Predict the 3D structure of the following.
Amino acid sequence: MNQKKFLALAATTAVVLAAGVWISMHRSSKQSDLGGATLFADLKPALGEVSEVRFAKGDGSRTTLRKSADGWMVAERQYPADASRVRELVMNLASLKVVERKTQDPANYAKLGVEAPDHPTATSTLVEVVAGKKTWSLVVGKGADGRAVYVRKPAEAMSVLAVPFITVDPDQKRWIDRLLVDIPGTNVHDVAVKPSSGAAYVLTRPARGDQDLSVSPIPKGRKAATSMSLGVQTDALAAFHFDDVRAAPSPAAAATDTATYRTFDGKVIEFSGRREGDKAYVTIATRRDPELAAKFPEAPATTPSAPAATPAATPAVTPAPADPKPADQTAEKLGARAKGMEFEIPAYKYEAMFRKQEELLEKLPEPVKKK
């Protein structure tokens, strides 16, 4: 190879290498334009003003989470939403950061689940966050190893992989606050049950802290089961979550079972239940019983001993039972939420609340088989 050809080849090689370096740097630059960038940089400063979050899918699924003076509501159900879950989602949306660019070819959107959610077979979900006069919109697609998610802004062609992973299920019942009530069994004074068939009865705990429970009436010649067995019924209100909620039917469906729970602090919760196929439903009414609360005052909280004070000129007067403190408005809150609503509850919970009297008695001995 002569010197002229060698120099020409060297020059060509240098040009190719320079072009390769430029392309690589250009790609890196383009990548860095998004890598680590926050998708909605102006959403975080507006978090305190967020008033609505909407989900929509191509199959017609819709959920609207709306903030009111009383907190977050699932608008379509007219029932309180799980506020902590709503807050977590909004904060995660405000924190979404790009990991890397993906496709901008609409033909490949479906692979990532970021196609436009305007077709029944689309797997994507459109999420809209409203704060003041501005709305932030995002098409949310498939997850990636449970740590990231594919997303795309509706007005942009480029899709990206972003973190953190977010869940935007438009199923309304997944956003409602499904904790109905949480009352420990030891707080229940009595349960009066009128089942659809069989005898009515009352299950009673005589005093605060008692482990023993009694049943009345008891059929002649029978005995009550152990307190452990009886306790299943008083424990039914602990961590009581329902499956779904809907407006009570009109006219009201006939109830077949009733159970009234009274607590030592005067809460009265009346459940009217019925079966519909393999599902169980209850409606709820609440009130207070001040006389019951007065019979079982809470023990005063112990405080560190202090130096003896000079006796008062007049004896102390025990105050009359007062209205419940704002922090203990369980019955009032439940009554407000339950008004006009019907709750679908787990079958096992229904069976625990509306037990037959026979289930609270010791089993009869097996009859002697004739030889």
